[in-house]
Amino acid sequence: MKIISLQSENPSEVLNESLEILQKGGLVIFPSDTVYGLLVDATNELAVKKLIQFKNRPWGKPISVFVSGFDMLNKQVITDHRQTQILEELLPGPFTVILESHHLVSLLLESEKGTLGVRIPLYPLIEKLVNQFGKPITATSANLSGRSSHYSVQTLLKELPESKKKLIDLIVDAGKLPRNKPSTIVDLTADKLKIIRQGDVLFLDKKTYFSHSPEQTKKIARFILQKIVGNKKLEKPLIFIIKGELGVGKTIFVKGMGEFLGIPDIISPTFVVYYEYASIHRFIDTFVHVDLYNVQDPEEFKHLRLEKYLEKGNAVCFEWGEKAGEIMNKLKDKGRIIYVEMKYVNEKEREIKIRY
Amino acid sequence: MLFVIQMKILAIDTSADETAVAVTEGRKVLSNALFSQISTHTKWGGIYPALAKRAHEERIDWVVSEALRKLETRNSKLETNSKSQIKKKKNNLAIEQFNNEAMNHIDYIAVTQGPGLAVALEVGIRKAKELAQKYNKKLISVNHLEGHIYSSFVQNSKGNPKREYKFPYLTLVISGGHTEIVLWKDHLKYEILGETLDDAAGEALDKAAKMLGLGYPGGPVIERLAKEVENKDFYQFPRPMLKSKTLEFSFSGLKTAFYYYLLKTDSVFPLRSSTESVSEGRQTDPVEPERHKKTGSVEIHLRELASSFQIAVFETLIKKTEMAIIQTKVNRLVVGGGVIANLHLRKLFKELVVGYKGDIYFPPYKYLTGDNAAMIGVAGSYKAQESKFVTDPLKLDRIPRLRLS
C-alpha cells in the first residue's frame, strides 16, 4: 500500500501513478467531489472482485461507475430523448443516475435487472483520470459496507483491519474533504423519475430543488453556478435574478455561489445596495452582489452604475430582482439571465426553482 | 504624556448616504458638516441609491465649504471680509477664494476608503484627491469601522469629554451595515474577533419593522414601541448563534422565525407592496398602520412583537459580548454605530459590564453614533502621528469590503 499526498504541484504525477495501478487491475483510494472513493477498472472482472471483497459487499448489490463525459456515458448505458434531457440538467454533478446498461462493464457491477449507475463528477481530477484511462472506473465510497463514508484518509485507515489494508494498492490523500454527502441516486429507468438515495442536492424535477438547511441551500447554489459556468470561457456576463420573501435564504444562496468562486466573506449588501468581490475562478473575474431591497424606484437604478459590470467574465446577482423590471430588457441584451425563485415550503424547507 | 502638536485635518466620509465633512484637531472637532439624504431622525437603516451617488456629487462641494465656513467662524486668523463676501454674494468665485484661504489652515486630508457603497465612496475619494493635489496636502485613508471605533473618544471643540485611553478594549460596531466585535489592542491595532455572517443587527431590526408594516426606516420605531411595553420579551424568538462558541453573528434565522410567526398568526404585512409601506410609514403614524383593513380584524400585538424581536437581537449582542469578555478577559468596552443610539441597548451593555467590574464608553454625542466625518478625522490623526499617509494619492481607490487590519 502506497500513500501519495495530492499537492497543487503534483496532479500529473498522481494521475500517472493512479493510471498505472488501475491498468494493472489494482485498487486506488481517491478523493472526489463527495467522499473518498474506491477506484478499480470497471471492465476488469478480477479487479472488481477484489473491490467487492474489500468492501464486504454482498454479491449482487450494484456498484456505480465514473464516466468522463456524455460520450462515454452513451457507450455504457441506453438513453432516450427524455432521459438525455434530464441528464443534461444533472450532470456533471453530485448525482448517480441509473440507466439500462450496454453490459460493457463487469456484470458484477450491474443490478439484477441489468441496470448500471453512472456518475460524471464535478471533480476535474477524476474527469481527467477517467478520460485518460479511456474506460469507466468504479465509483463507490471507500468504506466497508454498512459503515459511514470517509472525508479523510486517517479516519478510513483507522477503521480498516490489516487484512483489508493489504488489498489497497494506492491511496491518494487530498487531506480533509469538505463534508459533502454521497451523491443523490436517481433511477431514470421507469417513466417517473425516482430518488433512491438523497444526497446534498435534492430536486423535485430537473429545475426544482429542495433545501432543508442553509448548508444545503449553499450546496445547491454552488452546484448550479458550477454547471452554468461550465468549463469554457463565458461569452456573456451571468446575471442572476433571485426572488423570494424576506428570510427565505437569498443571501445564503449567494454565499454558496461565493464559496464556489473562492469568496468566503459575503454578507448582506442591503445597507450599501451592492458589494463587489474579486473571484478566484478562472472564468469569473468580478462578482457583484446587489440587493434591491431599498430601491423603490426603477429610476434610481440608473444611478447605481451597474452597467459597467455587465461585461463578459463577470457575474452579477440581484436579490429582490422584480424591482429590476424596467431594466430587465437591457439586462437580457447584455447578459445571460438565470432566474432563481426561492419559496418557503415550511419553516425548515425551501423550494428553489431555476430557469435559464 | 508626550506633547504632540496636533494638526488640523479635513475629513471626508461618503461611505453610505451621508455626505459628511469635518475639520478636526487631534481629538477635537472644530467643525462638522453633514448632508443627510434620509430624514434626520434616523442615522441608519439603508441607502437610497439614486440619491447616494448623485447627491454626494451634488453636495460634496457644498458640504466641504460648509465645514470650512463653520471652522472660520471660530478662527479669528481668517480674514473677516471673505466671510461677509460669501454671505453677500454667494458666488462661486467668492466661495473659491474663501476655501483657498481656509485650506491654508488645514494640514492633512483624511478620507474613508471603505467599507461602503462603491459609487458613494468614489465621490469622497475623488474630492479628497482633488483637494490634496490642489492645496498640496498629504492624504490619509481611513477605514470607516476604524472611525466608529474611535467615535467614543471624539471631543467637542473645547476638548470634552476628557476620556483617557486604557488599552486594550473590546469594541463593538453595531449599525445598519455592520456588526463586529473587535479587540482594540492599541492605537490603530485591531483584531476582528467576530462579525456577522449575513445581516447586520440594524438591518435585522429594519427588516422586522418592514414585516410589521412600520415602514422604513424602522429601528427607531421599534425602539419606541418596545419601550411602551417595557422592553419585555413576549414571544421568545430564537437567539441566533448563541449555541455556537464562536463570536460570529447571524440574524437571518431570527428573521425567518419572525416571518413565520407572523405568517402563522396571519399578521404578516404584505411584503410585496414595499413602496406602499414606505410611504405609509412616512406619512401616517407608523404605530397604527392601515394594515388592519388588509388583515381583517385580527388583533396584532404590534408592541409585543416589536419588543420581542428587539430583545432577541439585543440579547444576542449582549451574550456574544459576554463570551468575548470571558475569552479575552478584557472588561473595558467601547461601543459605536447607529444602533447604539438605542437607549435600552445602552442600558443592557451597562448592566453587562457592571457584572464584570468593567466600564464602557459610548459615543458622547448623538451625531457620533451615525455616519460622520469627525470620527474619520480623529482616527486619521493617529495615522498622521505615525506618518501613515497614502504614498501614491493618485492610486488610492475605494475598497467596498475593506476589512480592519
TrEMBL record, chain A:
<keyword id="KW-0547">Nucleotide-binding</keyword>
<dbReference type="InterPro" id="IPR050156">
    <property type="entry name" value="TC-AMP_synthase_SUA5"/>
</dbReference>
<dbReference type="Pfam" id="PF01300">
    <property type="entry name" value="Sua5_yciO_yrdC"/>
</dbReference>
<feature type="domain" description="YrdC-like">
    <location>
        <begin position="12"/>
        <end position="201"/>
    </location>
</feature>
<dbReference type="InterPro" id="IPR003442">
    <property type="entry name" value="T6A_TsaE"/>
</dbReference>
<dbReference type="Pfam" id="PF02367">
    <property type="entry name" value="TsaE"/>
</dbReference>
<dbReference type="InterPro" id="IPR006070">
    <property type="entry name" value="Sua5-like_dom"/>
</dbReference>
<dbReference type="InterPro" id="IPR017945">
    <property type="entry name" value="DHBP_synth_RibB-like_a/b_dom"/>
</dbReference>
<dbReference type="GO" id="GO:0061710">
    <property type="term" value="F:L-threonylcarbamoyladenylate synthase"/>
</dbReference>
<comment type="similarity">
    <text>Belongs to the SUA5 family.</text>
</comment>
<keyword id="KW-0963">Cytoplasm</keyword>
<protein>
    <recommendedName>
        <fullName>L-threonylcarbamoyladenylate synthase</fullName>
        <ecNumber>2.7.7.87</ecNumber>
    </recommendedName>
</protein>
<dbReference type="GO" id="GO:0006450">
    <property type="term" value="P:regulation of translational fidelity"/>
</dbReference>
<keyword id="KW-0808">Transferase</keyword>
<keyword id="KW-0067">ATP-binding</keyword>
<dbReference type="GO" id="GO:0005524">
    <property type="term" value="F:ATP binding"/>
</dbReference>
<dbReference type="GO" id="GO:0003725">
    <property type="term" value="F:double-stranded RNA binding"/>
</dbReference>
<dbReference type="GO" id="GO:0000049">
    <property type="term" value="F:tRNA binding"/>
</dbReference>
<keyword id="KW-0548">Nucleotidyltransferase</keyword>
<dbReference type="GO" id="GO:0002949">
    <property type="term" value="P:tRNA threonylcarbamoyladenosine modification"/>
</dbReference>
<keyword id="KW-0819">tRNA processing</keyword>
<dbReference type="InterPro" id="IPR027417">
    <property type="entry name" value="P-loop_NTPase"/>
</dbReference>
<dbReference type="GO" id="GO:0005737">
    <property type="term" value="C:cytoplasm"/>
</dbReference>
